[in-house]
Amino acid sequence: MKDSNQDTIDFGYKQVAKTEKQNLVANVFNSVAQKYDVMNDLMSFGIHRLWKRYTIDCSGVRSGMKVLDIAGGTGDLTAQFSRRVGPTGEVVLADINDAMLEVGRDKLRNRGIVGNVRYVQANAEELPFADDSFDIITIAFGLRNVTDKQKALESMFRVLKPGGRLLVLEFSKPIQPILNQAYDFYSFNILPKMGQMVAGDAESYQYLAESIRMHPDQATLKGMMEQAGYEQVTFDNLTGGIVALHRGFKF
What is the pLDDT of residues 99-145, one digit of tens each? Predict the structure, then answer.
């Protein structure tokens, strides 16, 4: 008899069939795509911009590099990388969700960011790129939505060049109990109401709050990255551990 745990996975606090999670997550992001940037600013009081800037600063990106921005969504990281790799480099904005990819493409083109950016609809678990293709890979606020996180980390490792680095920016576990309590109150009492008012969708933001709680904590994710083959894996807690930036290298 099969262990039922092998056939189901978390979707927020619910357990769903593994085969269903991808479509359920897609429905969430189809719903929130048009208001995604506005909600990011409101939800984080604009601090998400500092988290992303820190990620860019820690990436070691230089002119001429090839960068993969997975779950790149509306293109905040891609825009910064595009400027830094210059005309001799390339940034691939990859997202599994076509609605998010379309919003990101339109936003960057409207800002004149063209020429060294490519858009690819891709599943992080099965990246459609050759081995050893990228100098830098980032995934910002996307790993927690992936069905098989370990498989995704291994897929990223495969397409990363030797000497390259992966940066995972993701919501994590606050390190102070009082901050954790305040964060829980905000996430479950205010965030869904904000989602209803601004995006007309409380349910998707309830899922987002739940998905953060189901994501591996800092030490667990570090171990998962090491298991996938990354070396010198470290993490920095940002805003008291509400967010963490994990870094690992392929040697």
Answer: 889 999 999 999 999 999 999 999 999 999 999 999 999 999 999 99
Burial of 5 by CB count in 10 Å (0-12 exposed, 13-18 middle, 19+ buried)? exposed
The tokens for 202 are 């409380």
**Phi-psi domain of 83 (left: phi exceeds 0; alpha: psi -120 through 50; beta: other):** alpha
Q: Which DSSP string corresponds to 59-90?
A: TT--TT-EEEEET-TT-HHHHHHHHHH-TT-E
The residues near 152 (Cβ < 8 Å, ≥ 6 apart) are 124, 125, 139, 143, 146
- With contact defined as beta carbons under 8 Å apart, do 100 and 121 qualify? no
**pLDDT digits over 148-200, tens only?**
999 999 999 999 999 999 999 999 999 999 999 999 999 999 988 888 887 78
Specify the 3-state DSSP secondary structure of 16.
strand
Identity of residue 180 = N
> Taking a C-beta distance cutoff of 8 angstroms, is the pair 66, 118 a contact?
no
